[in-house]
Structure formats: C-alpha cells, structure tokens
Design goal:
Distance between the termini: 16 Å
CATH topology: Rossmann fold
Order of helices and strands: EHHEHEHHEHE
Mean pLDDT: 94
CATH class: Alpha Beta
Number of helices: 6
Low-confidence stretches: 180-185
Strand order of the largest sheet: 3-2-4-1-5
Number of domains: 1
Helix content: 25-40%
Structural class: alpha/beta
Shape: globular
C-alpha cells in the first residue's frame, strides 16, 4: 500500500495565523491556486482512492485535485483536524502553541483535544485502512495537525519539545509506503 498525504490549501485563517481546528473555513484564492498546483504535481501519480476530511477546506482541495481524474472520494471523520476547543479562532501567539503540540507534556485542556487522544484517533485510522484498502494507492487530503501523527506513525515520535516542525505546509505532499510485514508498529 502506498499513501500520498496532502494538507488542504490556504484559508483566510491560515493567512492570519488563526488556529482553525473544527471551524469549517473555505479555501481562499491562494488556497485554490495551491490546490491547482498540487493537482499538476500529482497528475502523473496513480491514485486508486481519495480519502478526505469532512471539512470544507479539505473537500475543496480534494475536488480540485480530482478534476479530470474521476477518482472516488471517501469522506472520513477520523481525519478531521484536531479539536482546538477553547483556542479555536485565536491567533497562535495568544497561547502556548508550542506546548499545545508537545507530546511529552501531554497537556489537558477544558475543551481542546488532548494530543495523545488525538494521536490515538489518527493511529486508529491508519490501523483500519491498512486492511480496508490493502494493495491500493491512496491520496489522503487532510490538515496540518493530522500530518503530524501521520508522520509519527511511520517514523516514530521524536523526543522533542514540540512536534510543530513535522507539520506539512498548505498543499505540501508527503509519501508513505508499507510492505505487508511493516504494518506492525
């Protein structure tokens, strides 16, 4: 199984450095251009299936990438962005955003999704799709936050203060592949 992962294109909240988790924000003009460029970059790639977050920005990105391809798009709640709870819509400078992404600190919040619970949700997604889509080449269209546990699933969780440097940029692409024997973590 081979997996291509891309983050959605830019939104106005991305541009303004506002935290957007479950807020259903659409792509801005730059985000649509980024998705079009990603479509061109992936044009020669064989893709059997697109699995996408249910949030508008991800769906719009998936649809732009899928133009002229006609690949089935499956919406999967498990790859919805991390719930930022009480921090939703705030500038990422108004709270300790670095600590929010610290697996080691594992901070608990009133409303926001705990990082280890978040990782467990995303890891469960991976554990399920390995059987469900065995032998397929999948494009996952999701979020910056989702890209962090995706990478950690394949490469391990680094012992660092914050996992933010692992985050994909808007419409960045990561490639992962598994041989059958590599599925055990």
């Amino acid at each position: 199984m081979e997996i291509l992962l891309t983050r959605h294109g830019q939104t106005e909240w991305n541009r303004m450095k506002k935290v957007q988790g479950r807020a259903d924000i659409e792509l801005n003009e730059e985000g649509r251009k980024q998705a079009e460029k990603t479509r061109e970059l992936l044009q020669a790639e064989k893709i059997d299936l697109i699995v996408c977050s249910p949030l508008k920005r991800a769906i719009q990105t998936a649809e732009i990438i899928n133009e002229n391809r006609n690949t089935t798009i499956v919406i999967d709640e498990r790859i919805t962005e991390r719930d930022f709870g009480e921090f939703e819509g705030m500038p990422n400078t108004d709270f300790d955003y670095q600590a929010f992404w610290s697996y080691n600190q594992n901070l608990k919040y009133d409303k926001a999704e705990n990082i280890r619970d978040f990782f467990e949700r995303v890891y469960h997604f991976w554990d399920c799709i390995k059987d469900e889509y065995a032998g397929k080449r999948i494009l996952v269209v999701a979020h910056g936050g989702i890209s962090i546990p995706f990478r950690c699933y394949f490469e391990g969780i680094p012992n660092v203060e914050t996992l933010l440097p692992l985050c994909l940029e808007n419409c960045g692409i990561a490639k992962y592949s598994y041989k059958e024997l590599e599925w055990e973590r």
